[in-house]
C-alpha cells in the first residue's frame, strides 16, 4: 500500500488560554487551519493581544487503517512553541515558528476508536527561541498558521529526496538524486528503488528516464542512496531549462517496491534544470549575467497575521513578479510558506531564503536552534529551482566566528549546489559566506569592498512613506528606489539590489510610525500600489505589459511653494506626449541623465506652471513603437466621485479558510485614485460569504483591502460598498 498524506486542517477546536480537560469542548470555538490566534485590525493594536498560550483540541478516528504502517503528525508551522499531547502522551515541545516539525504518533494512536489530540501553543515572546531575545522590527503573531497533515508511511519509507542537476547547459544534462530511506524495522531490508523522471506537462505513461536498483538497508538506519539518471532523453535545445521566462518544472518520483512487487512507498518532487552562480562580476543564471532587481517580503497580512491560505501566498509571488516587475524576492527574515516558494518556481521568480533572526544572537541553546533551522530550511526547500542562495547568518547581527563557521559548514554539507550569504549592515564584517550580502542604507550605493556582492536591503526606514503622504514625499520615495536601482545596475561588482520592501508590515512599538506599521513598502499592507510600486512595475518589458503612471495628483498647492515642477512619469513606453488642455506641452524621452542604467528610466517632465498661471487638464499619452498605447487624464476639477471594488479571484473554495482580497478605492471620473479622500465605506455581503476586516472602513490614501471567505456553502457572493456622496460599487465571487 503506498504512503498517504492526509490534510488535517479541518474540525479543530480553539480556546485562547492554556486550559486542561476541565474546560468542556462546548466552550471552545470550532476553527480551521491555517488559523490565527487573534483577528486584529490592520494597525493600532497591541502585540500583547496575540502573545498568549492557547489550546487546540481535535477528536478524530483514523479514516484509513494503519495496516502495519507508521503514522506521523506533521506541522508546516505554528507560532512559536508547540506542545502536542495525543491520548495522554505528551511529546517534547517544538521550539520554532517558521520551520516544519513532525511527531511519530504510531505508538499512541488508537487505531479503532476515538483519538484525543491537545495542543498547547505558546505564542508569547519566548526569548529562548529565534528570532526573539531582543527587539524585532516585525510581528510574529500566533496560531497554527500553516497546514497540519497526517502521514502514513511504511516501516521502510522514503524520508526525503534531493535532486541535483549537472551538465545542465549541455545537451546531455544529468541528474543525481539523493534518496533518503529510513528503515524503522529491526531487520535488514532489501527492496527495489524505482526512480523516474517526468518532463513538464507530461501526460503519457512512460517516464523520460527510469532507473530500478536493488537497495539493502540495515536495521534501524537511515540510508542516503544516490541515483544517477542520464539526461540523454531531452531535446538538444534549451527547452528543458528553468528560466525566468519559461520556468520548466520536471517531476522526480521515487518508489520503493517489495519483492512481491507491491508498491511500498512513493515520494515525488518537482525540480528544474538551471545553473545559478554569484561570481565576482555578478550573478549568472544558466551561464548568462543577470542583474538582480527585487524586493524583500514579509509573510504578513492585515487582520489574519501570518495565517494566509495557499491562494494568498501564491498571489504575493505573482504580485512581486508581475505587479512589481522583480526578478528576485528575499524571504526576510525566515523560511516562508512552501506555497509561496512553489509559486516562485512556477512563475520564474528567484528567491533568497534565510533563517529566522533579527540582529540578536542568543546563548548556545538558542544558537543550537538556529543551526537546526539551517538544516530544517535546507532540507525542506532544496528542490526549489527558484532558490538561489541560503542566508545562514542572523540578519544584521554582529560577527560570531564560531556560530557562523558552523552555519556555513552545515549549509555547504547539506547542499553543495548553492552558495551562502549572510546579511550584514556594515562593510568589512567577517566574510565567512560565499556572497557578501549587504544592507546598504547609505541612500546611495557603496562601492563593494568584497565580492561577490549583493545588496540585500536599501531605503526602508531611511524614507518611510504612507499612501496619504504629501506629493513631494510620495514621489521622492519612488525616485529614491529608482535612483538606487539605477546606480547599482551601473556599478561593477554588484550583483543586484533587493529593496526594503514590497509591502508595509506590522511591527513593534520600537519601530515604525507608532501605529504598529512600518510604512516601508512600495505597496501598502493591502498590496495597493504606492508610486514607488509603479516605478518597479515600469521596469517590465512593454511586450509583457504597457505601464504608464504619472506621479501627480495634478493640484496647484500640494507641494511646498506650489506648482507641479517637475512631474515624474513611470512608464516603459518609448516616449510620452504631455498635453495641457488640448495644447501639446511637449514630447518627452526617458530621463537617462538621472537614471542612466535602468531599462526604462522614468520621465521627468518640466512643468513651470505656478500658482496664478492658467491651469488646465493634464493628459499624458504613452507612445510605444510609434503608436499611442496608453493614456492618463487628470482633470483640474477632480473630485472623489465613485467607489471601485475589485477581487483578486473570481472563484474561491467555500471551505478550508480559503479567502481572497477585496480591494476598494475612491476615484474621480477618470479612474484616478483620490489619495486624500477618506470616506467611511460600508460593506455588505449577499450570499454565502464572510468578510474579514474592518467594516465600515474609513479609507486611507483613498484605498483599503479586506478579505472574503466562504461559509461552507457554495454559491454566488455579492459584495457591495457604499459611502455618502459616492457612487457605490459591487463585485462578485463564486464560492466553489
Ligand atoms: C533593516 C532590517 C529590516 C528592516 C529595515 C528597515 O536594518 O534588516 O528588517 O528593519 O532595516 O529599514
Protein architecture, described:
- This protein is mainly beta and 736 residues long.
- The chain has five domains: 4-153, Galactose-binding domain-like (Jelly Rolls), CATH 2.60.120.260; 156-271, Sandwich (Immunoglobulin-like); 291-537, Alpha-Beta Barrel (TIM Barrel), CATH 3.20.20.80; 548-634, Sandwich (Immunoglobulin-like); 642-735, Sandwich (Immunoglobulin-like), CATH 2.60.40.10.
- The protein has six helices and 47 strands.
- The strands form eleven sheets. Strands 26-25-24-23-22-29-28-27 form an eight-stranded parallel sheet, with helices on one face. Strands 2, 3, 4, 6, 7, 8 and 10 form a seven-stranded antiparallel sheet that branches. Strands 40-47-46-42-44 form a five-stranded mixed sheet, with no helix packed on it.
- Helix 1 (310-323) runs parallel beside helix 2, helix 3 (364-381) runs parallel beside helix 4 (401-414) and helix 5 (471-490) runs parallel beside helix 6 (531-537).
- The chain starts with a strand and ends with a strand.
- The mean pLDDT is 95.
- The structure holds beta-D-galactopyranose.
- Beta-D-galactopyranose (GAL) binds next to loops.
- Beta-D-galactopyranose (GAL) is lined by residues 137, 332-333, 395-396, 425, 439, 457, 460-461, 500, 520.
| Uncertain stretches of 5 or more adjacent residues | none
Supply the CATH class of the largest domain.
Alpha Beta
Shape: globular
- Estimate the mean pLDDT confidence: 95
- Spell out the CATH superfamily of the largest domain: Glycosidases
Strand content: 35-45%
Relative helix content: 10-25%
CATH architecture of the largest domain: Alpha-Beta Barrel
Number of helices: 6
| Biggest β-sheet strands, sense, barrel | 8 strands, parallel
Structural class: mainly beta
Q: Please state the oligomeric state of the protein chains shown.
A: single chain
Small ligands present:
beta-D-galactopyranose
Supply the number of structural domains.
5
What's the CATH topology label of the largest domain?
TIM Barrel
Number of strands: 47
Amino acid at each position: 500500500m503506498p504512503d498517504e498524506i492526509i490534510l488535517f486542517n479541518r474540525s479543530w477546536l480553539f480556546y485562547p488560554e492554556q486550559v486542561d480537560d476541565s474546560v468542556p469542548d462546548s466552550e471552545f470555538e470550532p476553527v480551521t487551519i491555517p488559523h490565527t490566534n487573534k483577528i486584529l485590525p490592520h494597525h493600532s493594536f497591541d502585540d500583547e493581544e496575540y502573545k498568549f498560550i492557547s489550546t487546540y483540541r481535535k477528536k478524530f478516528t483514523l479514516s484509513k487503517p494503519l495496516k502495519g504502517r507508521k503514522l506521523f503528525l506533521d506541522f508546516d508551522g505554528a507560532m512559536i512553541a508547540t506542545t502536542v499531547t495525543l491520548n495522554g502522551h505528551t511529546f517534547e515541545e517544538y521550539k520554532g515558528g517558521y520551520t516544519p516539525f513532525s511527531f511519530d504518533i504510531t505508538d499512541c494512536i488508537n487505531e479503532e476508536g476515538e483519538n484525543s489530540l491537545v495542543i498547547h501553543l505558546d505564542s508569547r515572546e519566548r526569548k529562548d527561541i529565534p528570532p526573539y531575545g531582543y527587539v524585532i522590527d516585525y510581528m510574529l503573531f500566533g496560531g497554527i498558521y500553516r497546514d497540519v497533515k497526517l502521514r502514513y508511511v511504511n516501516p521502510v519509507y522514503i524520508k526525503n529526496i534531493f535532486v541535483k542537476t549537472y551538465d545542465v547547459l549541455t545537451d546531455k544534462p544529468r541528474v543525481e538524486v539523493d534518496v533518503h530511506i529510513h528503515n524503522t524495522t529491526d531487520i535488514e531490508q532489501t527492496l527495489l528503488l524505482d526512480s523516474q523522471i517526468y518532463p513538464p506537462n507530461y501526460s503519457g505513461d512512460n517516464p523520460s528516464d527510469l532507473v530500478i536498483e536493488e537497495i539493502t538497508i540495515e536495521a534501524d538506519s537511515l540510508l542516503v542512496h544516490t541515483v544517477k539518471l542520464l539526461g540523454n532523453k531531452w531535446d538538444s535545445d534549451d527547452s528543458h531549462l528553468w528560466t525566468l521566462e519559461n520556468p520548466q518544472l520536471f517531476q522526480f518520483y521515487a518508489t520503493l517496491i517489495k519483492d512481491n512487487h507491491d508498491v511500498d512507498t512513493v515520494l515525488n518532487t518537482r525540480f528544474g534544470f538551471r545553473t545559478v552562480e554569484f561570481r565576482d562580476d555578478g550573478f549568472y543564471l544558466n551561464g548568462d549575467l543577470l542583474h538582480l532587481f527585487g524586493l524583500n517580503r514579509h509573510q504578513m497580512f492585515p487582520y489574519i497575521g501570518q495565517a494566509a491560505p495557499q491562494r494568498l501566498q501564491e498571489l504575493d509571488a505573482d504580485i512581486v513578479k508581475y505587479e512589481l516587475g522583480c526578478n528576485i524576492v528575499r524571504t526576510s527574515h525566515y523560511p516562508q510558506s512552501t506555497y509561496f516558494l512553489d509559486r516562485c518556481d512556477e512563475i520564474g521568480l528567484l528567491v533568497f531564503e534565510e533563517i529566522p533572526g533579527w540582529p540578536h544572537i542568543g546563548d548556545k541553546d538558542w544558537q543550537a536552534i538556529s543551526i537546526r533551522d539551517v538544516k530544517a530550511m535546507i532540507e525542506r526547500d532544496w528542490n526549489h529551482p527558484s532558490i538561489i542562495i541560503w542566508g545562514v547568518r542572523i540578519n544584521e547581527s554582529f560577527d560570531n566566528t564560531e556560530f557562523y563557521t558552523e552555519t556555513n559548514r552545515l549549509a555547504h554539507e547539506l547542499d553543495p549546489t548553492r552558495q551562502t550569504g549572510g546579511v550584514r549592515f556594515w562593510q568589512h564584517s567577517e566574510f565567512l559566506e560565499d556572497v557578501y550580502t549587504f544592507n546598504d542604507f547609505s541612500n546611495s550605493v557603496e562601492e563593494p569592498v568584497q565580492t561577490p556582492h549583493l545588496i540585500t536591503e536599501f531605503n526602508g526606514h531611511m524614507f518611510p512613506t504612507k499612501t496619504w503622504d504629501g506629493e513631494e514625499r510620495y514621489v521622492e520615495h519612488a525616485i529614491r528606489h529608482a535612483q538606487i536601482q539605477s546606480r547599482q545596475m551601473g556599478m561593477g561588482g554588484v550583483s543586484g539590489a533587493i529593496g526594503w520592501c514590497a509591502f508595509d508590515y506590522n511591527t513593534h512599538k520600537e519601530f515604525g510610525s507608532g501605529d504598529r506599521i512600518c510604512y516601508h513598502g512600495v505597496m501598502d499592507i493591502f498590496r495597493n500600489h504606492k508610486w514607488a510600486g509603479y516605478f518597479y512595475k515600469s521596469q517590465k518589458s512593454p511586450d509583457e505589459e504597457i505601464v504608464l503612471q504619472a506621479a501627480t495628483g495634478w493640484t496647484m498647492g500640494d507641494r511646498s511653494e506650489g506648482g507641479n515642477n517637475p512631474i515624474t512619469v513611470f512608464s516603459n513606453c518609448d516616449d510620452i506626449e504631455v498635453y495641457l488642455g488640448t495644447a501639446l506641452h511637449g514630447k518627452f524621452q526617458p530621463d537617462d541623465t538621472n537614471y542612466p542604467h535602468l531599462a526604462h528610466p522614468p520621465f521627468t517632465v518640466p512643468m513651470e506652471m505656478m500658482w496664478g498661471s492658467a491651469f488646465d487638464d493634464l493628459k499624458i499619452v504613452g507612445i510605444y513603437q510609434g503608436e499611442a498605447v496608453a493614456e492618463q487624464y487628470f482633470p483640474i476639477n477632480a473630485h472623489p466621485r465613485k467607489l471601485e471594488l475589485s477581487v483578486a479571484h473570481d472563484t474561491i473554495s467555500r471551505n478550508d479558510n480559503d479567502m481572497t482580497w477585496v480591494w476598494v478605492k475612491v476615484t474621480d471620473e477618470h479612474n484616478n485614485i483620490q489619495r486624500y479622500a477618506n470616506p467611511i465605506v460600508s460593506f455588505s455581503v449577499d450570499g454565502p460569504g464572510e468578510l474579514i476586516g474592518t467594516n465600515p472602513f474609513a479609507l486611507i490614501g483613498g484605498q483599503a483591502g479586506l478579505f472574503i471567505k466562504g461559509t461552507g456553502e457554495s454559491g454566488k457572493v455579492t459584495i457591495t460598498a457604499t459611502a455618502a456622496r459616492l457612487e457605490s460599487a459591487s463585485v462578485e465571487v463564486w464560492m466553489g
